[in-house]
Amino acid sequence: MKVKMRIPKLAASAVLLALLPLAGPMTQAAPDKSSTVSTSLFNEVYEEVRANYVEPVTDKQLVEGAIKGMLSSLDPHSSYMDAKEYREMMVQTRGEFGGLGMQVTMENGLVKVVSPIDDTPAAHAGMKPGDLILAIDDVPVADMSLSDAVERLRGPVGTNVTLTVRRQGVDAFQVKLIRADIKVDPVKSRLVGGTIGYVRVTSFSERSSGALAEAVKALRTQSDNKLAGIVLDLRNNPGGLLDQAVAVANEFVDSGGIVSIKGRQPQDNRRYDAQPGRDLVPGLPVVVLINGGSASASEIVAGALQDDHRAVLLGTRSFGKGSVQTVLPVKESGGAIRLTTALYFTPSGRSIQAKGIEPDVVVEPAKIEKVEVATRREADLRGALPNTGPAGGTGPAAKPAPGPTSEAPAPGAAATPAPRAPNVPPGTTPVAMPESLALDANTIGSDQDYQLVRAVDLLRGVTLFKTLAVQ
Q1: CATH homologous superfamily for 95-183?
Q2: Other CB atoms closer than 10 Å to residue 100's CB: what's the count?
Q3: Pure H helices in 223-329
Q4: Which residues, at least 6 apart from 366, have a Cβ–Cβ distance to it below 8 Å?
């Protein structure tokens, strides 16, 4: 008996980009003369499996399995989602979901961590960009699809999952995590030194652009409208919605391109340009922080601000995901497919696929620790003359007022690598962390964050230079 395959109609849905789906228009493939042969081959294998497999299998199992295999053979980001997985994906783009809090992809048959999300079990357990997951609860991932692995990583809130992890340069180790209800706050902000605004965008969900605008408005109020610059932190941001990436980039540029998308057919090509009057901080210098966990939508924003000469990029090379996926609902099953349909390009025409964005200033991650140094000064010497000048007093020399770079490490301070394997739960194997992956989730945005301190110093230097130029 020949199996008649009915191809369900597809309709375009969410436009996403990340290691969640990335967005782009669908294209129609040209007729393939070998399609008849391919269909015949599929039918033959299908019937053999259906009739002779050791246990009975349903048509649904075989068809969905064939679809998953077909899509996963194309690239790491094309996949089939059943109805449950599709619903979970749509919830995740709204910034609320259950699980461990990390974005993953497939690499050479293993699950690779692209980025842990701030304030989630994965971040608190010390998971790092580039970690390879070898097994989930002692079940090897080598024979799993990405969707199968993700389903195993998820589970009821409060339950445990044990991951076997391989990290560059160290032996495999295990880490136990407790699943949680993940509610991602897409934007965090604070004022540094009274005049520098620090804004961290952790993901590009539906609320990111609006939350960014609110954060900048609050920073202006906190600084009494004396903001001297903005640090936009996109480190460990795995991406999200395309329209939010465009909107966030537009919050800093008033003109020029943001991103272009190019597919197989000319009609699929699109270009997104900045809309005038949207810059939240016109005239103020901006530094963007990126690293190997900055992927997809983050790279669109960073590439746009770099090409439009709106910001200085500081940190390390980004992840390099420049492909576009379209999410297409499948009516018959209630699920969806996400299919790579195009590549995206920065305003200057660069494709960052597999290359990433190179920062303008390379700064490796490190943690600042003050080193106590016993230093004798003039005022400590016996019989030292007192300072009686206009700015002095009658006693020991007064402490100098903080200068423009008072947030930088004091003399004797040292920038040292972050602590090894921070916050790994008890009972797990402690491992040495490669310095290239030493960004501690608990250090990000703090006064010990060396990359942030360098960014703040850069902005203060620019501000001081402008002030001197005017005088």
Answers
A1: PDZ domain (2.30.42.10)
A2: 25
A3: 242-250, 297-307
A4: 415, 416, 417, 418, 435, 438, 450, 451
Angstrom CA distances, 73 to 21, 83, 107, 340, stand at: 17, 21, 12, 12
Instruction: Locate 224 and state its tokens.
Output: 């009494």
| Residues carrying an active site annotation | 296, 307, 321
**Who contacts 155 (Cβ-Cβ below 8 Å, separation ≥6)?**
98, 99, 161, 179
pLDDT mean over 357-380: 84
| Contact assessment for residue 258 and residue 347, using Cβ atoms and an 8 Å cutoff | yes
Q: Which two tokens stand for residue 211?
A: 């939350």
Q: Which amino acid is at 101?
A: G
Sequence-ordered list of residues with C-beta below 8 angstroms from that of 373, at least 6 positions apart, any chain: 411, 412
For 398-455, strand residue ranges (E) read 414-416
**Per-residue pLDDT tens digits for 323-340:** 988 899 999 999 999 999
The packing angle between helices 208-222 and 242-250, to 10°, is 30
Amino acid at 198: Y
Cβ count within 10 A of residue 61? 13
Place of tokens 């540094």: 192
**Positive or negative, the Cα torsion across 265, 348, 455, 293?**
positive
List phi, psi (to 5°) of 134: -90, -35
450 neighbors 415 (Cβ within 8 angstroms) = yes
How high is the pLDDT of residue 391? 57
Whether 309 and 357 have beta carbons less than 8 Å apart is answered as no
Task: Specify the amino acid at residue 90.
Answer: M
Q: Residue 305: how many CB atoms within 10 A of its CB? A: 27
Q: For residue range 422-466, what is the model confidence (pLDDT) as tens digits?
A: 333 333 333 333 343 445 666 899 999 999 999 999 999 998 988
Give this prediction's pTM.
0.74
φ, ψ (nearest 5 deg) of residue 190: -160, 165
Query: 416: which 2 tokens?
Result: 């040292």
152 and 139 Cβ atoms separated by less than 8 Å: yes
With contact defined as beta carbons under 8 Å apart, do 356 and 42 qualify? no
Q: Would you call 294 helix, strand, or coil by DSSP?
A: coil
Q: How far apart, in whole angstroms, are the C-alpha atoms of residue 238 and residue 20?
A: 9
- Joined together, the tokens standing for residue 356 give 């990433």
Cα(311)–Cα(288) distance, rounded to whole angstroms?
A: 7
Q: Cα 356 to chain center, whole Å?
A: 12
**Cβ contacts of 263-272, under 8 Å, gap ≥ 24:** 263/24, 263/25, 263/27, 263/324, 263/341, 263/342, 263/343, 264/27, 264/341, 264/342, 265/27, 265/28, 267/25, 268/24, 268/25, 268/26, 268/27, 268/341, 268/342, 269/342, 270/25, 272/246
Distance of CA 309 to the CA centre of its chain: 22
DSSP assignment letter at 263? E
CA distance 294 to 236: 5
Domain boundaries, the chain: 95-183
What length does the chain have?
471
